[in-house]
Amino acid sequence: MTTAPRGGGVRALGASLLDQVLAETLDPAYQQAADARARTATDGPTAPRRFGARSAALVAVTLLATGLLLAVAYNQAAAESPGRDESRSALIEDIQRESAAGDRLTAQLEDLQAEVSATRDHLLHSTDEGQRALDRLSRAQAGAAAVEVTGPGLLVTLADAEQNADDDPVGGSVTDDPRGTVRDRDLQLVVNALWAAGAEAISINDQRIGPTSAIRFAGEAVLVDFRPVTNPYEVRAIGDPGELASGFLRNADVEALGIVSATFDRRFDYAQDDELTLPAATPPELRWAAPSGADDGAGGTAGASGSASSSSTPDDQPEAAP
User: Fold this and answer.
1) pLDDT (mean) for 157-173
2) Which of 86, 192, 250, 308 can bridge 318 by disulfide, Cβ–Cβ 3.0-4.6 Å?
3) What is the CATH number of domain 150-161+178-304?
C-alpha cells in the first residue's frame, strides 16, 4: 500500500510510520501522565491546605462539644450525689429503727409467752386432769421442737472449700468451683441421715429443725425456715452418740458425700459430744383452736399450721448425693 506525498512520487506506508516514531520519541500515554503530574504539583499545595484546615476545625468543634457534655454530666452527678447520700442515710436509719422496734416486740412477746406459760402451768398443776394435759402438752412441744433441749449427741460440720491464694497471684478475682460449695441438698442429706440414725432433735447453726422446717438454697445463701445460715455449717443432733455415729456413717449417701467432699476439698467431719444445747424452733402460726369438750368433736385439740417441707423430717427419704 502506498500514499502520494505532496511533492509527488510514491512513498511507502512503512517509511511514514518510521518517520513518526523518529519524530515522537515519547509515547502519548506517558506524555499525558507527565502532564497530569505537573498539574497536580501545581494545584496540590492549595487543595491539601484547604482540606487540612477543614479537618482541624471539625476536630476542634468535636472536642469542644465533648468537653461541654462531660462538664454538664459531671455537674449533674455532683449535684445528685448529696441527694443519694441523704437517701441512703435515711434508708439506713429507717432499717435500724424498724429493726430495733422488731427486737423490742420480740422481747415483749417472749415475756408475755413466759407469763402465759407460768399461769397455765400453775392452773393445770392443781388438778389431775390438768396434770395429764400438761404431760400431753410437753410431749407435743417436744415433737414440735418448741422447747429447748440439752443432751449428748453428734456434731457434724460442713464447710466450703478454701480458696487457694496461688490461684490468683496478681490479686484479681478467683472463679470458684461450684462443686466446692456446700449446697442445701448436702444439708438435707445430713439431716435426713441423722434422723434415720435415731436423732431426737437437730439444729443447723442454732436454727432448730422442726416438723415443718424447710432447708432451701436462695441465691448464694442457705435458708433454714427462711432464715439464712452461713458457712461453716454445724449440724447438731441429740441422741446416743455411739448409735448416732454408727448409723450415720453406715448411710450410703453419707459415704458418697464424704467422697465428694474429699475430692473438692470441702470440710466434712463429725465429733461426739457429751452435752449439746439446741434452741427452740420458731413456733408455727396458730390458725385455729377448739376448747375441750366442744360439740364438733375436737376433744380439746388445737391445730397449728405452717409452711410444710419435705426435706427435714424423720420420715423423709434422703436426697441423692451430688
Assistant:
1) 65
2) 192
3) 3.30.70.1880
**Using alpha carbons only, how large is the chain's radius of gyration in Å?**
45
- Dihedral through CA 217, CA 219, CA 221, CA 224, nearest 10? -40
User: Which pLDDT score, from 0 to 100, does residue 320 have?
Assistant: 36
Task: Report DSSP letters for 26-89, one per residue.
Answer: S-HHHHHHHHHHHHHHHHTTHHHHHHHHHHHHHHHHHHHHHHHHHHHHHHHHHHHHHHHHHHHH
In whole angstroms, give the CA distance from residue 287 to residue 207. Answer: 23
pLDDT band at 153 (very low <50, low <70, confident <90, very high): very high
SS3 239: coil
Q: Where along the chain do its domains lie?
A: 49-126, 150-161+178-304
Instruction: With CA atoms as reference, report the closest residue to 147 among 96, 97, 190, 113.
Output: 113
Q: Dihedrals φ, ψ of 296, to 5°?
A: -80, 5
What distance in Å separates the CA atoms of residue 53 and residue 48, rounded to the nearest whole number? 8
- pLDDT tens, residue by residue, 240-285: 999 999 999 999 999 999 999 999 999 999 999 999 999 888 776 7
Say how many CA atoms lie within 13 Å of 189 toward its Cβ: 20
Q: Is the pTM of this model over 0.85?
A: no
Q: Please, which residues bridge with residue 204 across strands? A: 207, 235
Q: Over range 165-186, report the average pLDDT.
A: 66
Q: What is the DSSP string of 266-286?
A: -EEEEEEEEEEEEPPPPPPPE
List the one residue out of 157, 303, 297 whose CA is nearest residue 236: 157
